[in-house]
């Protein structure tokens, strides 16, 4: 497993870490305006010899689809990218068809590989199910050789996964089918939306919303709704244990991955282990 840093803005690059890792995932899973510029990746490639540059592209609204296409075309023209990750099928189809014979690897992003096991309380929801149902529910959509073949035929060579103890068996199956596995070590995506939560909450639009996005809001469980009491009540210890703190950055909500040590033990199956540098201070607080 090679470790790479997930960075959303070029000016967040920590050069000491970059020189050590020589592997970076630049971009965003949720915001088109976070894509790096061509001159930034060229500069990065020139500054650090043998640097691996992986681009993460976001969920894209119809209004921003052409902007996304133009930005990705420009990045590809730099001839400095090792892979592109897609979190939007429309963008994936466009790039996979236009650049079918390029040397760039194409990967599925976490918004396209989300699973039921990403829900922190999925075990609670599955508590009365048979073992075979639990295994199925905790698997990935890619735990089907036919789907992997379909994506391979499109030129897709791997997938970003939010992995944990519940879907570890599913991860093994995907690796055995010859897919590159990119695991995000310290975060799991809880939810996503096409509307930017922080921009909407603060009544801002781009670029004024950028400062808010770069300071993730922390959501902590306060009360739970009770049908029996017909109102909000204090959560039980069990509920508090199940519901983690959430970190809202733009239109993506993350929470800490509690199984990082397990993933490190499975490193022989993982092509890249991604550390989210943006959330490091928040996730480990």
TrEMBL record:
It comes from Paenibacillus macerans. This is Uncharacterized protein. It comes from the Bacteria.
């Amino acid at each position: 497993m090679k470790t790479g840093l997930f960075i959303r803005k070029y000016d967040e690059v920590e050069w000491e870490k970059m020189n050590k890792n020589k592997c970076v995932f630049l971009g965003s899973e949720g915001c088109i305006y976070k894509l790096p510029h061509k001159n930034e990746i060229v500069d990065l490639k020139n500054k650090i010899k043998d640097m691996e540059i992986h681009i993460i592209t976001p969920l894209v609204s119809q209004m921003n689809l052409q902007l996304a296409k133009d930005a990705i075309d420009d990045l590809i023209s730099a001839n400095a990218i090792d892979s592109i990750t897609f979190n939007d099928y429309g963008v994936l189809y466009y790039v996979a068809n236009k650049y079918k014979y390029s040397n760039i690897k194409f990967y599925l992003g976490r918004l396209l590989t989300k699973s039921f096991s990403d829900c922190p309380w999925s075990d609670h929801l599955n508590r009365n199910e048979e073992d075979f149902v639990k295994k199925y529910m905790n698997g990935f959509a890619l735990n089907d050789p036919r789907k992997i073949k379909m994506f391979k035929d499109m030129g897709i060579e791997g997938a970003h996964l939010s992995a944990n103890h519940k879907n570890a068996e599913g991860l093994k199956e995907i690796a055995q089918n010859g897919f590159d596995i990119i695991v995000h070590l310290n975060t799991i995506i809880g939810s996503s939306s096409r509307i930017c939560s922080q921009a909407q909450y603060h009544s801002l639009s781009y670029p004024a919303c950028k400062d808010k996005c770069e300071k993730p809001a922390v959501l902590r469980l306060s009360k739970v709704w009770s049908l029996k009491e017909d109102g909000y009540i204090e959560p039980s210890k069990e509920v508090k244990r199940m519901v983690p703190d959430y970190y809202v950055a733009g239109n993506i909500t993350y929470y800490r991955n509690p199984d990082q040590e397990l993933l490190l033990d499975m490193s022989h199956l993982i092509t890249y282990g991604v550390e989210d540098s943006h959330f490091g201070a928040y996730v480990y607080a």
